[in-house]
Amino acid sequence: MDYIKMIRNKVGSDPIILNFAGICVVNEKGQILLQKRGDCNQWGFPGGAMEIGESLAECAKREVLEETGLHVEIDYLIGVYSNYFTTYSNGDQAQTVLHFFKGYPVKGSLNVDGVETVELAFVDPEHAPPLFNQQHQDCLADYRSNEKGCFR
Questions:
Q1: Per the UniProt record, which residue ranges are transmembrane (predicted)?
Q2: What is the enclosing helix (H) or strand (E) of 51?
């Protein structure tokens, strides 16, 4: 069973802490991969919620594969972003903790599923479109500043 659904069945919409992992996937041209999300039709980095039994790195790689079709390897941790509170459109509340990595594609090809992902694009990091939330905006700023291992 999906971890978030399992927790939500127990606590309803009450505030919880959720661990997420994401990757700034950088291609050989130095461009970063962005995902236009199906839930809000806005741009962000690929990533998602950690499941019971997986590491943060496994979570990040799984989510990138599911959302983009790419197998990736991780270079390093850009940062941990933990002081963000979200109320989702269904009323669920969460403090989200995002562990954000820099990585690169090793195989696969971009695949848009039309549900979770409606568009994918490699873009120049200095000319990225607006991202869907402050957490992702802070991740992009830290990547641009060449941060490693920061905590926000």
A1: none
A2: none
Residue closest to 21 by CA, chosen among 69, 78, 88:
78
CA distance 57 to 111: 21
Spatial separation of the C-alpha atoms in residues 132 and 112, rounded to whole Å: 18
What is the enclosing helix (H) or strand (E) of 90?
none
Contact 47, 20 (CB under 8 A): yes
Task: Determine contact, residues 139/81, Cβ cutoff 8 Å.
Answer: yes
Q: What is the pLDDT of residues 119-151, one digit of tens each?
A: 999 999 999 999 999 999 999 999 999 999 999
Helix, strand, coil tally for the chain in percent (to 5): 25, 45, 35
Class of domain 3-151: alpha beta
